[in-house]
């Protein structure tokens, strides 16, 4: 059985490789791919698996199993959303602005609140930047923002566990008044956690609380706005969550762990994760699977010329992925 499985793995790998070679013959641009290429390669892998299995019947009823295995590995093993979002730089912001404009045009009655979300996020990022300057000026020598961010993640972990017990995921998004109460309950716990981390790194408690208060005011507003929009216009939910995530990137060292508590982060649909819980609690449902990848791919389309070098890498990767799945069955 293992010998047969290995034979299939080799056959599939060769087929994908030859298909990829044919598609880019004569191209000399492979070496010029940007960092986003690795991401688009992953997406093309899943696409090639779909195409290959659609036009063949050698796997019979096992088709869906192999698709799930390969796509699951591509989406959740080596994909770093934050790294790719940051690498896109201005392209990411341009794409997000376009996304919000489209949302406002589709739901004109929500255009004012969509603009409020955008403006509040800009103010929040500015407040986080002022906090960053204070950290750099007053923290212990040798302290890095990355170290503080990691400590915040650790400090928030027990809070997230406690919150999931205190506020079980409802069948639908919480309503405005309940959402407000919950947010401020959470922010009180978060503030104390940030203060503990800041003191550990040499910051003064009074200064810490001043900066955190400014940050929390805008965090609360963003969560309420996005929650209200999601409740009244569920079609906007995924767009608004994604937009908030991309806008926090400049100050992700603090905003990423902080806003993750309120569901602003990728991988929401994975059952049992804090982000999935928060998205269901505050916004009614988790962001659709695959949407984070799709958004980043569209945002970075102009970075990599279509069809350049993607099929060879994608073909080999997908073939090997399926082969490994066979071997482990």
UniProtKB/TrEMBL annotation:
- Which InterPro entries did the record assign? IFI6/IFI27-like_sf
Signal peptide start and end residues: 1-26
Reading the lineage from the top rank, the first entry is Eukaryota
Ordered alphabetically, the record's keywords are: Signal
Question: In its UniProt entry, what is this protein called?
Answer: Uncharacterized protein
Organism encoding this protein: Somion occarium
């Amino acid at each position: 059985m293992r010998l047969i499985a290995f034979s299939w793995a080799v056959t599939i790998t060769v087929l994908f490789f030859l298909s990829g070679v044919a598609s880019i013959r004569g191209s000399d641009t492979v070496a010029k791919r940007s960092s986003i290429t690795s991401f688009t390669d992953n997406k093309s892998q899943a696409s090639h698996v779909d195409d290959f299995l659609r036009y063949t019947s050698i796997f019979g009823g096992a088709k869906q199993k192999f698709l799930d295995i390969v796509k699951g590995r591509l989406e959740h093993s080596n994909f770093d959303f934050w790294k790719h979002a940051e690498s896109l730089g201005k392209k990411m912001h341009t794409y997000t602005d376009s996304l919000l404009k489209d949302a406002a045009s589709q739901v004109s009655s929500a255009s004012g609140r969509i603009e409020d979300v955008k403006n509040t996020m800009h103010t929040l990022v500015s407040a986080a930047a002022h906090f960053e300057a204070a950290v750099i000026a007053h923290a212990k020598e040798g302290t890095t923002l990355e170290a503080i961010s990691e400590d915040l993640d650790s400090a928030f972990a027990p809070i997230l566990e406690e919150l999931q017990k205190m506020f079980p995921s409802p069948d639908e998004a919480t309503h405005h008044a309940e959402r407000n109460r919950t947010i401020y309950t959470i922010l009180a716990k978060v503030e104390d956690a940030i203060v503990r981390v800041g003191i550990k790194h040499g910051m003064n408690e009074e200064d810490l609380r001043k900066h955190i208060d400014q940050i929390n005011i805008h965090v609360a507003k963003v969560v309420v706005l996005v929650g209200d929009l999601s409740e009244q216009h569920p079609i906007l939910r995924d767009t608004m969550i994604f937009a908030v995530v991309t806008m926090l990137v400049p100050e992700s060292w603090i905003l990423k762990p902080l806003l993750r508590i309120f569901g602003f982060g990728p991988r929401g649909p994975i059952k049992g994760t804090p982000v999935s819980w928060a998205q269901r609690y505050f916004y009614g449902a988790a962001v659709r699977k695959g949407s984070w990848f799709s958004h980043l791919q569209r945002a970075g389309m102009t970075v990599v010329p279509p069809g350049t070098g993607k099929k060879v890498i994608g073909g080999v990767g997908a073939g090997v992925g399926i082969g490994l799945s066979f071997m482990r069955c």
